[in-house]
Amino acid sequence: MEHFLGGDWEITPAGGVTGKAFFARHAGKELFLKRNSSPFLAMLSAEGIVPKLVWTKRLENGDVISAQHWMNGRELVPEEMESDRVARLMGKIHSSKPLLNMLKRLGKQPVLPAATLSDIYSRTNVISAHPVVADAVHFLEEQLPNVPDYQFVVCHTDVNHHNWLLSDQDELFLIDWDGAMIADPAIDLGTLLFGYVKQENWTGWLSQYGLVLTPDFFHRMKWYAAAQLLLSIEWNREKTRFHDMNRSLASLHRLMKAEYNLFGNGENKKDAFKK
């Protein structure tokens, strides 16, 4: 990487699970570099969803390096996830035809709810005996016929507060799109609403997003929220992150008790989907 940019650049790892992200600094310039990012990044940049893409270049070994403007700023705190601007940006993403068409051109196929359940079967067999897990899997099985397999949009799939960047110029971005898929918007909205927004504020939040809350959509969100938590529990178990695993188990237990109530008592907890 240093050879590619030149010896004057200071390059440091940016962290993350993949190890493919880096910071580069030189003479007051700062870039965020990523190895082998998806061509989808260019469309996200054009739509103003992520910081501006500066260039993309191919190395001799075939790797592709993308460079974005490094934005000074901070991640959102959990309480800020209830804000109207988060709802509006999420609505912009889910309603974007250019983003959807780009993922289709990249060969992405819609992820059907039955495929999600099959993925859970294959990945949670070790923990399936846990009563909370067993209860959630039974819920997914029972409710699968009521979860539609249409109205798919571009979903981020990991919209926890760590992936929302507020720049020093007061620009809001949603970053880290490695898990993007074409799927039911309830995947993202379930995480946001059950995880961060008091239920009595759901109607107003969804109004900013561009949706009217109904019992059917509530149950769709609950279905996908349970699926996301089950996969998170297994991922944390595999990584021996047992504290996070137990926290997600507790969140799943709360979720299973959640019922549709337009003026709810705030039963959902703000830490439900933190990793």
Automatic annotation (TrEMBL):
One MF term in GO for this entry?
transferase activity
Which SUPFAM superfamilies does this entry report, sorted A to Z?
Answer: Protein kinase-like (PK-like)
Pfam families documented for this protein: APH
Keywords per UniProt:
Transferase
Superkingdom assignment:
Bacteria
In this chain the Aminoglycoside phosphotransferase domain maps to: 15-209
InterPro entries xrefs: Aminoglycoside_PTrfase, CcrZ_PhaseVar_Mediator, Kinase-like_dom_sf
This one is known as Phosphotransferase
Protein species of origin: Domibacillus iocasae
